[in-house]
Automatic annotation (TrEMBL):
<dbReference type="GO" id="GO:0004157">
    <property type="term" value="F:dihydropyrimidinase activity"/>
</dbReference>
<keyword id="KW-0479">Metal-binding</keyword>
<dbReference type="InterPro" id="IPR011059">
    <property type="entry name" value="Metal-dep_hydrolase_composite"/>
</dbReference>
<dbReference type="InterPro" id="IPR006680">
    <property type="entry name" value="Amidohydro-rel"/>
</dbReference>
<dbReference type="Pfam" id="PF01979">
    <property type="entry name" value="Amidohydro_1"/>
</dbReference>
<keyword id="KW-0378">Hydrolase</keyword>
<feature type="domain" description="Amidohydrolase-related">
    <location>
        <begin position="50"/>
        <end position="440"/>
    </location>
</feature>
<dbReference type="InterPro" id="IPR032466">
    <property type="entry name" value="Metal_Hydrolase"/>
</dbReference>
<comment type="similarity">
    <text>Belongs to the metallo-dependent hydrolases superfamily. Hydantoinase/dihydropyrimidinase family.</text>
</comment>
<protein>
    <submittedName>
        <fullName>Dihydropyrimidinase</fullName>
        <ecNumber>3.5.2.2</ecNumber>
    </submittedName>
</protein>
<dbReference type="InterPro" id="IPR050378">
    <property type="entry name" value="Metallo-dep_Hydrolases_sf"/>
</dbReference>
<dbReference type="InterPro" id="IPR011778">
    <property type="entry name" value="Hydantoinase/dihydroPyrase"/>
</dbReference>
Length: 499
């Protein structure tokens, strides 16, 4: 059969090797990888270019309300377009259950928004803020079995946080159903206690966000999340790791055989806390949780990526406009407690990681591919369909010009945030042509994809949950205890039933 598309003469990289070959695409799938492939209905000349798997972003906030109740600036259309321009061909944002909401309804509504608007392939995770019987034993189980095989829980934010008892309830369901739990690990009471004292002293400027989200709060909660997961010996992913101390805790747990994984984000690798110290409210642009840290933390993060202590780099795209509709609900009178948390990052995730990582010699190309695509696919139930360039996989491909220099400006980006934390920075390397399921969706700076043309991808069980691994005797004991049907009646899920 003749190829629909042939990508010719490029340098291909996957997560293990770099080699020269052509790629032939038929019906959205990679049909051949090899030398001198036949001409396709369409040929793309990739000589002098890198041919890499399209990026997968498994942590981004799209058309979602935050813990503080604020709607972010990007919907499924603008977010997916922005992602595509940055070389990402699949996003996995969050359907967020706020307190009192039906998890099933939340997922249903979110899926409809995605289907109507996304221009690239997608799935979503859940965010759980309730641990009642319907949420955990009916809706969550059903959703996991229908291909939503991961969810996030918060240890901080008053409106979303689960206490340790609830975390154990949730971890037990994840263990039973082979779902991956993503944990936002910060100690809520430490942050509240410090914040209160800062506010009382009139210290309300954006930089105090960083003071209150002290490293110790992240380190303590990371340690606690790992301890709780160890009780049931269930895999967890600590998201947006920012601190050297948290990395150390994750590394130690892994050393002991725990299935603990970690993610970081480009902003922690490229920006430091002094950005929050800008005059007036300007620092709010750089406010995220956990906050930006220092140069020492950055060094530890790069090393942790290199050593495999952290496995994924995601954007944590949390887009809020720098005005009263977004970051600053009370204008200049906004305190650091009232600012929206989060930074934009979908479009520049891979260009920043490529420039600061590959171009500066901190990462090899296979490491870049693993951190940007392959590990995401493995860890979230998308492999081998996505995350690599092999026969039978979806033709999700980004063709990179490795030497191209770009000076970043907000105006050139496709999100709806209206600013970029990286304004004026010059980076090396850009994904010029982006292909999702065989469709050339970005080419020569233009979008060629219809609203709603992305596909929902049902996910299988995440590799961390299925990889053969001997359970610890403790894990086996407490899993059996949790699986005991008597412990899973609706009555046992009520707050009153908690001793
Ligand atoms: O500051 C952040 N990260 N905002 C987004 C919500 C979250 O915690 O991931
Ligand atoms: Zn065909
Ligand atoms: Zn978070
Ligand atoms: Zn997030």
């Amino acid at each position: 059969e003749i190829f629909d598309l042939t990508i010719r003469g490029g340098t291909i990289a996957d997560d293990t090797r770099v080699f020269e070959a052509d790629i032939g695409v038929i019906d959205g799938l990679i049909a051949a990888v090899g030398p001198n492939l036949a001409a396709g209905r369409r040929d793309i000349d990739a000589r002098g270019r890198l041919v890499l798997p399209g990026g997968i972003d498994t942590h981004c906030h799209v058309e979602q309300r935050s813990g503080m109740g604020m709607m972010c600036a990007d919907d499924w259309y603008s977010a997916s377009v922005s992602a595509a321009f940055g070389g990402t061909t699949m996003i996995v944002p969050f359907a967020a259950q706020h307190r009192g909401m039906s998890l099933k309804q939340v997922a249903h509504d979110y899926a409809a928004l995605a289907a109507e608007k996304s221009v690239i392939d997608y799935s979503y995770h859940l965010i759980l803020s309730e641990t009642d019987a319907t949420t955990l034993d009916t809706d969550l189980v059903e959703l996991i079995r229908s291909g939503i095989t991961s969810f996030k829980v918060y240890m901080t934010y008053d409106q979303l946080k689960l206490d340790d008892y609830q975390l154990l309830d949730v971890l037990a369901v994840a263990a039973r159903e082979q779902a991956l739990v993503m944990v936002h690990a910060e100690n809520n009471d430490v942050i509240r206690w410090v914040s209160q004292r800062l506010l009382e002293r009139g210290k309300v400027a954006p930089k105090h966000h960083g003071v209150s989200h002290v490293v110790l709060a992240e380190a303590e909660a990371t340690n606690r999340a790992i301890a709780l997961s160890s009780l049931l010996d269930v895999p967890i992913l600590i998201v947006h790791v920012s601190a050297r101390e948290a990395i150390g805790t994750i590394a130690a747990a892994r050393q002991m055989g725990a299935a603990v994984y970690g993610e970081t984000c480009p902003h922690y690798l490229t920006l430091t806390e002094d950005a929050m110290d800008a005059p007036g409210m300007e620092g709010a642009k750089y406010c995220c949780s956990p906050p930006l840290r220092d140069a020492d933390a950055q060094e530890a993060l790069w090393a942790a990526l290199k050593e495999g202590v952290l496995q994924t780099v995601s954007s944590d795209h949390a887009p809020y406009r720098f005005d009263a509709s977004g970051k600053l609900p009370f204008g200049d009178a906004t305190t650091f407690k009232q600012m929206a948390n989060g930074m934009p990052g979908l479009e520049l995730r891979l260009p920043l990681l490529f420039s600061e990582g590959v171009a500066k010699g901190r990462l090899t190309l296979p490491e870049f591919v693993a951190l940007s695509a392959t590990n995401h696919a493995r860890m979230f139930g998308l492999y081998p369909r996505k995350g690599h360039l092999a026969v039978g996989a979806d033709a999700d491909i980004a063709i990179w010009h490795a030497e191209r220099e770009t000076t970043l400006t907000s105006a050139a980006l496709h999100d709806r945030v209206g600013y970029t934390p990286y304004e004026g920075m010059t980076i090396t390397g850009w994904p010029e042509t982006v292909i999702n399921a065989g469709r050339v969706i970005v080419e020569a700076g233009a979008l060629h994809a219809e609203r709603g043309s992305g596909r929902f991808i049902a996910r299988t069980a995440p590799l961390p949950c299925t990889a053969p691994r001997p359970l610890s005797p403790r894990g086996r004991f407490f899993r059996a205890l949790a699986d005991d049907a008597a412990a899973r009646t609706p009555a046992a899920r009520t707050p009153e039933a908690r001793m």
